[in-house]
Amino acid sequence: MRSFLTRTFPELIRINIALSVTLSAFAAEVLASDKISIKLVSPLAGIFFLACGASVLNQLQEKEQDAKMDRTRKRPVASGNLSSKAALLIACILMFLGYGILISERYWTCIILGILDILWYNGFYTWLKRKTAFAVVPGALSGVIPVFMGWSAAGGSFSNPLVLILAFFLFIWQIPHFWLLMLKYGDEYRLAGFPVMTDIFNITQFRNIILAWMIGATGTSIFLVLSGLWMFSFSKMIILGLNLLILGFFFHQLVFAGTPRYKMMFVIMNAFLLIVLSLIISERIFF
Known about the structure:
Layout (H helix, E strand, L loop, with lengths): L1 H11 L2 H19 L7 H21 L1 H5 L8 H4 L4 H21 L3 H21 L7 H4 L1 H13 L7 H24 L1 H6 L11 H25 L5 H24 L5 H25 L1
């Protein structure tokens, strides 16, 4: 039981992804309300449980593909450590908790968006991944919807451009984030039956495509600074400085490095997203 709670369950719900989804929703909440309130906790809990349930359901859907890849073959369902029936039960319980919390608090817009996100991620995107290597582009919308969920839960109006700016930033940054995984684990994805970008482009072309997306992602980050998303010059300088460092590092790795450090680039992108969201939240907590 202890092993299940400390190892199997966190891996089953992909705790790091669930927390990042919740953090993006939290950032949208504090942007919409411009303050921290205890009322923001319950919708975040609902969003967290829904993200966990979607991850469990995804592992159940892709257990055969996961079992063929070294990166994922040790996941609870793919490895056989957890039965499909148990995984389905856990997914249903988690989603029941998520929707139950949102319904009890009458976050109706958030509920509708949550249903849409599950359908998009576990329905359309999971199916599309087996059809095209470009699935990540529409699939990135799954990471954007929680922003609107958090925004609506805090009473924000969708006519406010700040939520669109934040959502667009998260959308753009997700694309090279997932393509870096495809570069590093392309052979495994292919073995599992997923189409990969290197079936369409050679390695050099694919690296250039990722670099182009990174330039675009950097542009959206600069646009965040110009939009007034941060109140203080210190925060703005951090974002601008990190953008220059990241872009320079990616340019060196993707253009000049003989053996690019894809995993490090992946980690850097995740860290940058964490910094952006944390700065948005911390400004409203401490100032």
